[in-house]
């Protein structure tokens, strides 16, 4: 049985970290935090505004600070943004301070989930479909090195309810 006091969900944009995290938290009676939403509340800016005004590097530092601020919080599920795990030592920190779960999805599934709502996602907002698909393939290959360090890896291509069950099974092992 894994330690479920502090769970971190990692994975690419469109992996379903937020909806899965909410359901998972409910079934384990834990609090749920979406790191992007938390950052937006703290900074009083949308993620897109932070990227536009301060740039990606500044966002990564804000994101890291936000992540580390949960060091002493327990009974919590934290859905991290897609780029959080691959910045500096964030992935190692998550593994040292809780249990990490990678929601692994295929590029095709990610494309169908994120392309229709690209406006909300500053990294792909101005891309056409071909560029988005290429971006997913390249970034996923790059980030998988980090994501795959997670304590639990589940296939996230299916329905939310099924993926939640897979996570619960992974946490029991
Ligand atoms: C990002 C993913 C987003 C958000 C930001 C950057 C990324 O979070 O943090 O737009 O680098 O992949 P979601 O994975 O929740 O969409």
Write up this protein.
The chain has 173 residues and is α/β, with parallel strands linked by helices. The chain has helices at residues 17-28, 35-43, 47-54, 56-68, 90-97, 107-114, 129-147, 160-172, and strands spanning 6-10, 31-34, 76-79, 99-104, 152-155. The chain has a five-stranded parallel beta sheet, with helices on both faces. Helix 1 (17-28) crosses helix 8 and helix 6 (107-114) crosses helix 7. The longest helix has 19 residues, at 129-147. The chain starts with 5 loop residues before the first strand and ends with a helix. Residues 13, 17, 36, 47, 81-83, 121-123 line the site of shikimate-3-phosphate. The site of shikimate-3-phosphate has 10 residues, from loops.
Salient structural properties:
alpha/beta; binds shikimate-3-phosphate; 8 helices; Rossmann fold
Helices and strands, in order, run as: EHEHHHEHEHHEH
Question: Could you say which small molecules are bound to this protein?
Answer: shikimate-3-phosphate
Structural class: alpha/beta
What is the name of the CATH architecture?
3-Layer(aba) Sandwich
How many structurally independent domains? 1
User: Could you give the count of β-strands?
Assistant: 5
Q: How many angstroms does the end-to-end distance come to?
A: 5 Å
How big a fraction of the residues is strand?
5-15%
User: How many distinct helices?
Assistant: 8
Could you please say which CATH topology applies here? Rossmann fold
Poorly predicted parts: none
CATH top level class name: Alpha Beta
- Please list the strands of the largest sheet in the order they lie side by side: 2-3-1-4-5
In CATH terms, the superfamily is: P-loop containing nucleotide triphosphate hydrolases
Mean pLDDT: 97
The description of the largest β-sheet is: 5 strands, parallel
Using only C-alpha atoms, the radius of gyration works out to 15 Å
């Amino acid at each position: 049985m894994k330690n479920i006091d502090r769970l971190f969900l990692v994975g690419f944009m469109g992996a379903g970290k937020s909806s899965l995290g909410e359901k998972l938290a409910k079934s384990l009676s834990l609090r749920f935090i979406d790191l992007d939403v938390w950052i937006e509340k703290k900074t009083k800016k949308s993620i897109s505004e932070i990227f536009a005004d301060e740039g990606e590097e500044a966002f990564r530092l804000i994101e890291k600070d936000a992540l580390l601020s949960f060091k002493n919080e327990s009974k919590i599920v934290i859905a991290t943004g897609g780029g959080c795990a691959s910045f500096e030592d964030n992935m190692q920190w998550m593994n040292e301070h809780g249990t990490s779960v990678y929601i692994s999805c295929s590029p095709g599934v990610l494309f169908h989930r994120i392309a229709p709502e690209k406006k909300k996602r500053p990294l792909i907002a101005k891309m056409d479909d071909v560029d988005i698909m290429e971006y997913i393939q390249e970034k996923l290959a790059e980030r998988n090195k980090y994501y795959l360090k997670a304590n639990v890896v589940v296939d996230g291509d299916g329905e939310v309810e099924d993926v939640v069950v897979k996570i619960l099974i992974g946490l029991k092992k």
